[in-house]
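Sequence only, no structure available. Ideas?
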Amino acid sequence: MIIAGAGGHGLELYQVLIQQGVVDSDIYFFDNDKSELSKKEINGKGVFEESEIIKHLKNDPRFLLGVGNPIYREKLFFLFESLGGKCVGVNCTTGENSGILAANFDAFPFSFVGPSVKIGKGVLINSRAHVHHECSIGDFSEIGPGSMLLGASKIGLKCRIGAGAVILPGVQLADGMVVGAGAVVAKSVMKKSVLVGIPAKPLS
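Reply:
I predicted one. Tokens follow.
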């Protein structure tokens, strides 16, 4: 399988796969920034050209998104799908549904996903993030480490929820929203903006 992205997030993803029993020799990396592929952890595992991607995907169509930024997650998702790949993700949530690979989103170690939650494709739920009952997360959104989405909150497409941020129950956020680290969002915001502070307000 190929990790699409060889930066810091890609290395964390690699570590999770190894810890969960994926064989090291089955993991490869792709990155548009070829300098990222020179890291010692990736030595000999770099996939550089489109023809190489296609060759690997014929043997194993699975790929994982090794970047956090929603814009790049979306771009890599559609690039690899167009080349015949099938997106999978790590599933490290607590509970009986945990396992190495999830559908097509990532849930990193110590994350929690409650009942009746809707998670879009390419979503990243980072370490220790909590997504509580009946929440909805749009495609390619990034839920930062230690952040909390409380009951029935709804996050749009390609949003970035910063580390330690809290989205209160029932709050809805528009597509493309950015919520700063540690912010507490108490009211719905349906216009794309950057929210910071407690309570969170749009940056002017």
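Helices lie at 8-19, 50-59, 70-82.
Hope that gets you unstuck.
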